[in-house]
């Protein structure tokens, strides 16, 4: 087993859990952000929801045609997957009648009014995106600056990527942790409190970037937990480079206390994965909560958030980049042998 290469002595689980509560260690500060002042970014932001809700309900057909011409691929996605106006099983009376009913519905109009009030002035986020895309140009010079399109989906879809790395932002997923998301569909796990806690403007830029970074990274190279944690950890490293002023709690989408817990328990999380023989486990039901959104990590203390594996993968990616500082981010993402990546990183959690 690869564990032996670390000369790692497996501890009893009770000792590891005690370590979770007692051990405290800090992560190594990241390198200073590069100077990107000289990089010129021309950012295009499309406010689709404003054009959509401004349609003349007495002439939906011509307005719809104009939207389709103006927004192209985004409009195709919106009117087939988000507001399925061209699906005869749902829009039995045709797209014009369906769209008129949608934008005239009192609850939808109320939602639009709330989003319009909160995001009428998009300047603060525009400035944040410009700065982020300067870092994107620095680290990924071959990638064109993404175009941004805002929209409202009635809580059906958040952020996604379309066309040539263009990014769509579902504004109704950023109305604040106090917004009553759960009342609209109490059985929907996407509206669980640990998730809706991050449905706020502090997370808007990060969540918008997630599909872009996932697209750059491609699929994980295998099914083992090690494959997933290194794959996801590399993506977190990219996000850290694109958002150098953003705290770990935002990047990991956890509370400040949970971020501190992760930092203080890095050694114990790693020891837990080793002692439970999880790194090379490919049973998705057994490993998924360590790499997917979850309120907690099975077998760890209640203070532990979900996705503890991603945190470890992030630290492994940092160790690799520290050891091989000339590695570009595109080259880092292209390294698909998880076992070799771990070995070359020389990762050892701090004592």
Keyphrases for this structure?
single chain; 351 residues; mainly alpha; 2 domains; 4-stranded mixed beta sheet; 50% helix; globular; disordered N terminus
Written overview of the protein:
- By secondary structure, this protein is mainly alpha-helical.
- It folds into two domains: 170 residues, no CATH class; 128 residues, no CATH class.
- Helices cover 50% and strands 4% of the residues.
- It is built from 16 helices and four strands.
- Strands 1-2-4-3 form a four-stranded mixed sheet.
- Strand 3 and strand 4 form a beta hairpin.
- Helix 9 packs across helix 14.
- The longest helix has 23 residues.
- The chain is globular.
- The relative contact order is 0.13.
Briefly summarize what is shown.
With 351 residues, this protein is mainly alpha-helical. The protein folds into two domains: 45-214, no CATH class; 218-345, no CATH class. The protein has helices at 13-22, 48-53, 60-82, 95-104, 106-119, 123-139, 193-196, 204-217, 225-242, 248-252, 256-264, 266-275, 284-287, 308-323, 329-334, 338-345, and strands spanning 45-47, 148-151, 160-162, 166-170.
**Secondary structural class:** mainly alpha
The topology string of helices and strands comes to HEHHHHHEEEHHHHHHHHHH
Q: Which spans of ≥5 residues are poorly predicted at pLDDT below 50? A: 1-19, 21-29
Q: What is the terminal separation in angstroms?
A: 23 Å
Query: Helix content range of the residues, please?
Result: 40-55%
Q: Specify the overall morphology.
A: globular
Number of helices: 16
Give the averaged pLDDT, no decimals: 91
- Mind describing the biggest β-sheet? 4 strands, mixed
Radius of gyration, CA atoms, in whole angstroms? 22 Å
The count of β-strands is 4
